Structures are given as structure tokens and as C-alpha cells.
What does this fold into?
Amino acid sequence: MTADYQLKVSQDISASAPVIRDFLADLSNFSAWNPFLEMDPSAAIEVSHPSAGVGASYSWASKKIGSGVMTITAISDSTIDIHMQFTSRNKREDDVKWFLEPTSSGTTVTWSMSGKRTLAERAFVSLMRLDSVMSKHFADGLQRLKGAVEH
It folds into this structure.
């Protein structure tokens, strides 16, 4: 039996939504703020050509952080939708969204990941507190994104 899950972390950034959207929609920028690369800076990274827009992809391979590919599936003024496939260890697919909400001082960016988990996955995630760990990684990434786009 599977159940839906969703993680969400937000960060206020002093840049306009269009500036942030264009930065996020170009996956050649992802390594600059990807919090997971800190765990293995030597991970093999490959970015599609073109690197921006619907259909662009970013793949990684590492003994420490596993392997996978993320592909942009939709872009609007307020969201970027990504299909995430993890291809090693725990083979699975999830959906990632980056939400952009304009504010009086810039934009609130929310990084969301959702999908389905089996009972065994839910038990393991709970036992290992993986949602808390992943939320911290998202928060770290959004802080790096903030540094990359605020200039």
C-alpha cells in the first residue's frame, strides 16, 4: 500500500521572480547551488544541450549520493516542474516543483518534492528521519540559490 508524501521548504530571495525563474530553468546553473554535491564534489554531472527549458535534463552519478536524472517538464511564470528519476540504490520517481511567489521585497521560492511511498519506505524514512535530513538539504540549497541570484 502506497501513500502520498510531500516535502516543502521556502526561502525569501531579493530578486524578481522572472530573474529567478530564468536562472532555475537553466540546469547548467544547478551545480552552483545543488546542496547534494557538497556530499560528493567529485560526482559525475551531465547537463543536456540545450540546458534550459522544457526537456532540459541534469544527471548525476556518484558512489556517495547515488545516481539519477531530473528533467524539466513544464515552466510557467510561477512554477518549474521537474520529473526526478533515481536510478541507483532506491530506484524511484518523484516530482519536484520550484514555486515562485513575488513579494514586496523579491520572491519567496519554495522547493517541493512529492511522490508515493510504500509502507516499508515510510517506515524507513520515519526511522532514519530522512524527511528532516532532506528538508535541511533543501534549505541549504535555497540559501545557496539566494547567494547565486542576489547580486
Observations:
- Strands lie at 2-13, 44-47, 57-62, 66-75, 79-86, 92-103, 106-118.
- The mean pLDDT is 95.
